[in-house]
Amino acid sequence: MKSPSLFAAVLIAFALVSWASAAERAGQDFVCPGDKAPVLIRFHVSIDDKPLLDLWDDFMGKLFAHLDRNGDGVLSKAEALHVPPAQVLFNNVPNFIGLRSKVPEALDKNRDGKITRAELADWYRAIGAAPLQIHRIPVQNLLTDRVLGANPLLSADLLNENFFRLLDTDNDGKLSRDELARAPDILHKLDLNEDETISVQELSENIEIKEERMASDPVLFPNVSANLGPLTPVETGEANRDHAKRDPDLEIRIRLGRKAEQRASVELLTIKEKPSPLAKSVRPWSGEKLVLELGPTRIELGCAGSLGYPQRELPQLHRKYRAALLRADLDSNGYLDHKEAMQAPLYRNAFRLMDRDGDGKLFAKEMIAYLDTLKELQEVAMRSCASLAVRDQGRGLFDLLDGNKDGRLSVRELRRMAKLIDQLDRDGDGRIDRREIPHRYRIDAHPGPALGNLSTTPVQTVRRMNENDQPDDSSRNGPLWFQKMDRNRDGEVSRREFLGTDETFRKIDQDGDGLISVEEAKRADQMFRKENERKP
Fold first, then answer.
1. Which residues of 383-392 are buried (b: 16+ CB within 10 A; e: fewer)?
2. Which domains does the chain have, with CATH numbers?
3. pLDDT tens digit sequence for 431-470
4. Is the pTM of this model over 0.70?
């Protein structure tokens, strides 16, 4: 059996440490990969200056009171039949199609036949419907088709493997400065179209692509084993409360919605009596955002507005479900029985939820009352949680080298490979191993749940757009003759592209590196103009 990784082993240890229930904690805890060991991060989130956990507790109280019809403080098995699944509750538009969860059995954790409010809250947390939810979304890449071609599932990690396969000539699993310095000559052989650049397609030749799709529903796949990016929510529950508590390594406050003007949207919390040893790993970034540099993991954290969920007004829902009920009422007796409901797609999974009195009959009046109540609960649920949208921006040598983000490596960019040692060699051994390549993530905090903003599209981590979601086009700079000669649009003119003589090329190429840069072209253009002015 394969032994677990260090991160997995420490993650299990974290899961056994007590961060107890939501009421006992000041925030939501997550484990993140660090330089030497996993890091515990605690997020303190507020919406409209109200603590998120207070909003969540109020919501759970309203939901439990709605379900506890006899008011005895626990849910019976019959009452638990009406617990709305997360896909229905955390969504403005009811969707009962495809529900498969056996709610009563899953809720009654201690098998005593009674379900407490804590068990209800724990069940929602266990399936991902927590106060602070996480979901991964695809990297928005306007040049995906042009850059990735026929390999839309190509990842930065796969490109890294090809770099190591081609450049690690001594097979020690690391890239030395000398090996990186030889990269231009070695990778030049991949230039199939002879444009003097190495594209993603050319570098990815003979890479075996394995399809790995994201879960389309975040509330069904949120557990520790799910690939949620850099943050793994720490499990909580009754079994953990006897263990010693552990202070977080970092505490970060996130303010969503309305807030006082003088307050930052995202800030690092500092305690003078006990400063965090990792505080130096956090710094401001691009306005009201933070960057967390945690060894091989870089997280850019900011706040954003509402994700924008689909809306449907109650009168529309009433008409839709009433029409479906009339169609499904095959014996025209004015109600649906269980057999009729099982033959109607809209009611197949909604029947047990809507049949509040449990008599096996669903009347239109009962259905309308359920939709009205559900709408109220949905509105409270949407206002009582927040989500972290995680964009994987790649863990790639290609990204680090591709300075203008055009999906190709120019000669000059390849020559910079040896300098990566100075940037990435954290252990000081003069070489780069795979673990030293930083993995970049962008995380935006939003009010509202994760559900509704996911896609089944695979995450693409090859390259990243610039701030305006437009490709950098530095090749458009420089004199007109330079732009016309720069046929491969890499922002340089090589001897092969230059149409003049060897003597003229050497005159313009002042640093003698075999490439004419934009700056050299501009200086040459001024020199030629002055020479022409002096001519009689």
1. bbbbbbbbbb
2. 6-53+67-127+219-282 (no CATH), 154-210+396-437 (no CATH), 314-381 (1.10.238.10), 474-534 (1.10.238)
3. 998 878 878 888 999 998 885 433 222 222 233 323 333 3
4. no
